[in-house]
Amino acid sequence: MAEKHQIIREVRLFESYIKYIWPLxxxxxxxxxxxxxxxxxxPESYSPLQGGLCKHCRELDDPETNRxxxxxxxxxxxxxxxxxxxxxxxxxxxxALVLFSGGKDSSYLLHRLMHSYPDLRILALTVDNTFMSxxxxxxxxxxxxxxxxxxMVLRPRSATMEKMFRYAITHLNERGCAGTVDQFDxxxxxxxxxxxxxxxxxxxxxxxxxxxQVETILEMNDYIxxxxxxxxxxxxxxxxxxxxVFDRQEMQYWWNGPAWPAERRPRMIxxxxxxxxSEAFVKAEVLRLGLMPxxxxxxxxxxxxxxxxxxxxxxxxxxxxxxxxxxxxxxxSGKADRKHWLYSFETLEYAxxxxxxxxxxxxxxxxxxxxxxxxxxxxxxxxxx
Length: 385
Known about the structure:
48% of the residues lie in helices and 6% in strands. The chain is α/β, with parallel strands linked by helices. Strands 3-2-1-4-7 form a 5-stranded parallel beta sheet, with helices on both faces. It is globular and about 65 Å long.
């Protein structure tokens, strides 16, 4: 409990700094900052600016403007039909496995599914990657209690998680930590869920990835994975062969579609691909519904403990955060507040170049991974400079 309050206190102070102090401080910190697009937030180090605009904004690159206006209605009807049909199968103990992290998106997702599909038998699943925020875990237990949903926690061996993240962060691809470390994390917990669902004969796994994440991370343009996709075996992540990282026993964590009969292979559903809510809407809803206390909806509180290290490593090695393209697209689509994320990523860049704010969190993560600063491209000493 003391650790939770300490984390909340530190994050709220940091967010207050970003909101109230940084707008003034940034005037004196400009020598540390890369110019960013005046419409979205992409830095010049990622996309060269012309007239203050990145390539995407100059070309008015917003996929939302090119969508079929009836697409959302058609997909919603397909989702409703899918979940109502499976709900009528009364011989199943569970109809859907819902990935539940304790953050705002998965909390809103779980509540809306239970409200919109009351006959759907749900098993909420939390995958503890052993770096979870204690705030997120406390949210998990409190929310499942309030909603009265059945719940399970999977916690793989710490040694396996540490090995996976250590290898990923020291073998970054061109997409940085988002495309390597975060990709490993997401694919790993998705495959744990697939194996559990196949074992328990649960036909669907429901996940809270956003439309942008589905399109950029999974390279899909649909709300549900195909039968062909789920029939395959996972052999690599982020271009890294899994056998280079994991032993034979650990490989059993990963999905092996051919090992299961077709009728046992679950499909993954991404409702946010259809609903496409804004970040502000989801925050407001989880607070209105009383799903979590004010402040706990912040991703800085509920995200896992490698996030500060990932942000610093990206800034030092690439000159930008690998998560900026995703949030920039959200800004361009009107799904995220530009000023908030502009100031957040500017503050991260300032921290990376000066050693302010995140030094302790970075060192704690490195110690857990048995890595030195030099191993991830950072200079030695107590400051990240």
